[in-house]
User: Fold Transposase from Microvirga lotononidis.
Amino acid sequence: MKRGTKKNLFKGRQFTAEIILWAVHWYLQFPISYRDLECMLADRGVQVDHTTLFRWVQAYAPEIEKRIRPHLRMTNSSWRVDETYIRVEGKWVYLYRAVDAAGQSIDFLLSCRRHAAAARRFFRKALGQPHTVNPRTITVDKNAAYPTAARNMKRAGELWRFAKLRQVKFLNNIVEQDHRRIKRLVRPELGFKSFATASRTIAGYEAMAMIRKEQVVCAPAGDMGAQRDFIAALFGTAA
Assistant:
């Protein structure tokens, strides 16, 4: 990482990188609102407005998710894919998510539509991550869009031609249970105000989930200090 990265990312901020990353980590880790976090920080002598906390999360949550990817353990080749619903601008949109057979997070995609094109975009995004492999099996629900997307991708050489698509709903309990974490984190804010806001925030939620699932070797799930130090190291800052 270049020495100038830290200055560029935190330039102009009233607070230190340590405090900013500390606050962002807390918000993404626990089901709290920005106003709750404002009170928690005030209790620790840090006076910062909830609107500033919102801007911090929007700026650094997707950056954490991007920087964590190269440090993740490789997922296995059995994918469990499903969609859940997130409220954005007062409307329900689709959140595509995937985990492997061991419950490790693979990727996510927010989409206004639930069709073959969206499924294909999600598969492409997931396949492009450094911690994923071309799946041997992809377990999905009965949504007719998935077979269409898989056929088109195999025809285009984007998906392994021997990959098996299984439309068996009960086998997707792993990813359906994993959706509950996202729902719990979203609930305090009563939905998102924009599509971009939702996507950036969820990127941070997913990054914290990967840490909790011990997908990062140097950040054990139960060691908050190690997690804090790991996030600080991603940005070249001293925790």
About this structure: The chain is about 50% helix and 15% strand. The chain has two domains: 5-71+191-234, 78-181. Residues 78-181 form a domain with the Nucleotidyltransferase; domain 5 fold (CATH 3.30.420.10).
